[in-house]
Amino acid sequence: MARYEEHPADMRADYTIDQHWDQYTPEEHAMWRALFERQSKLVAGRACKEYLDGLNGLGITLDGIPDFERVSDLMEKRTGWRLVTVPGLIPEKNFFEHLTHRRFPVTYWIRPPEKMDYLQEPDVFHDLFGHVPLLVNPIFADYMHAFGEGGLKALKLDALNYLGRLYWFTVEFGLINTAEGLRIYGSGIVSSKTETVYCLESPIPNRIGYDTLRIMRTDSRIDALQETYFVIDNFEQLFEATRPDFTPYYEKLKTLPDIPRGQIAEGDIVLHRGTGVAG
Ligand code: HBI
Ligand code: FE
């Protein structure tokens, strides 16, 4: 994308830049439409109701890459959240600081065609289609705000690895039990073609009941389908679980070994014992 690379000096001290919505090319809008068309079909019947409700009514549509200011105006009315534009992954401290001010950082660039099915770093589709819809659910919006506060505390306690896992196994790869069956709320899943189906239908991964301490001990990989998913019963459970100060958790965790990715541990609430990673 020309504009940010042409003007890196545009980046402000808080790592934000301007979106320059009018400078997206027809090819970039076409990539958005291809991703939106494919993913919105896949999440129907698989993503939770709260996510699907959020996806409608925010100006995140098939038309093309949305204007972040327009989406922000609609979000702000609902839960006080706005979007800020960033060039990509930003330092943890700045990321968490934005969350504490109900600002969600969204990458401005979109993936190239050769990376349509998978990319490591979040692009505008992952952030907007994946993260933003749940930010208009009041409880999840409060969870994300609390996460920012918790993140800044974890940085001070040198416990970011533990908190990062909680973010990974809830915000990015979380599942939720509903009356209609298991559903998705994790952003990394809903923005991924393969994982949207795999996480619910494959016998390979473990599916374990939510447990904060257990999650913070669980090793994960960022470049493969998850081998373990954690399941909540509702968003209140998630918000309540993250109310307490985690300092005592971090102390206890220092005495406990990590739990390998695909392993079932003692005390797990096993909802599905995976057949183990293929191959
Ligand atoms: N930066 N732009 C951006 N988006 C993220 O999701 C993000 C980040 N920096 C750090 C970070 N996430 C992680 O530390 C959190 O997932 C915990
Ligand atoms: Fe993400």
Account of the 3D structure:
By secondary structure, the chain is an alpha/beta fold. The protein has one domain (21-272): Phenylalanine Hydroxylase. 44% of the residues lie in helices and 11% in strands. The strands form two sheets. It has a five-stranded mixed β-sheet with strand order 4-3-6-5-7. Strands 1-2 form a two-stranded parallel ribbon. The protein is globular. The chain binds 7,8-dihydrobiopterin and fe (iii) ion. Fe (iii) ion (FE) binds next to helix 6 and helix 9. Residues 122, 126, 130-131, 172, 187-188 line the site of fe (iii) ion (FE).
Tags for this entry?
single chain; 279 residues; alpha/beta; Phenylalanine Hydroxylase; five-stranded mixed β-sheet; two-stranded parallel sheet; 13 helices; 11% strand; binds 7,8-dihydrobiopterin; binds fe (iii) ion
